[in-house]
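Practice set, problem 2.
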Amino acid sequence: MKNEETHISSYLSHAVVLIVLLILTTISVSVTGWHFGPFSVVVALLIASIKVRTVITYFMHMKSENLFMKLMVSGVFVLYALVIIITFIDYYFR
């Protein structure tokens, strides 16, 4: 680890991320009052995934990590999605 770089985030970037997350939280709370029919869950999950991406990118500093670490984090999400899909398939065929 002799070629390790330090990454320092500014207070401005944290403030912008905080404002974006607050706006997305406000949108997700207000969306619960609107009736999208079967797409309500899709809209809620889309907003939640944008929030997760923002938190991982800025607060977990994934934007400054190397490709291997980004692939490992992506692999965790793929594995989680596979477990959920397999669980629903198992539940469907019972």
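Problem 2, part (b): a different protein.
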Amino acid sequence: MRPSFLHRYTSIANVIQLLETGRLTLRSPVHWEDRNDAFAIELYRKRIGAKAIAAVCFTHHHWKVFAPHGACIEFDKARLRAVFTGVTGVRQGAVKYREIARLKQHPPDEADLPFLKRHPYRDEREYRVLYVGGGEPSFAVPLAAIRRITLSPWLTPEQIARERRAMKSIKSSLKVYRTTVLENADWKAALGKSRA
């Protein structure tokens, strides 16, 4: 069963900007840390003769890489996809994961290039939105599409309190949590009850 949500790991500043403006900005992948991804999208851009490509990615994990001191925005998948559906220049879809040997035997179609990643990343279950055109476009996203915000495990309690206040001052009904992925009291208590 496919999940009904999409996760966007990003900085606190990007979360606040989204909450304040109601807009999600797609950025150029030129400076992405994953140089394989950046290469694939740049290759696609050149092959189709586009001026520029901007993108945004949604994954199911990766605190350390994407938002070590940031947050995870959980979007309602159907509502978020609707924002981009039918928009000229926008492509969206799930990323496909391929092994290098398979890619060598069966080269991908040009249209698939921006939606391919190496097989080791398959647990990300990434969903990607591309805009083929100029600049870094922003799209109106209804705040109702945001199901919750989860703050990074590396933020201090003081930072958590401050960021939660700031986010809830913009949208009071917003659910804002701190992840317990690195330390969870319930998990520890359950382990403590293990049989000898």
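Answer key, part (b): The first helix runs from residue 12 to 21. The chain has one domain: 5-192.
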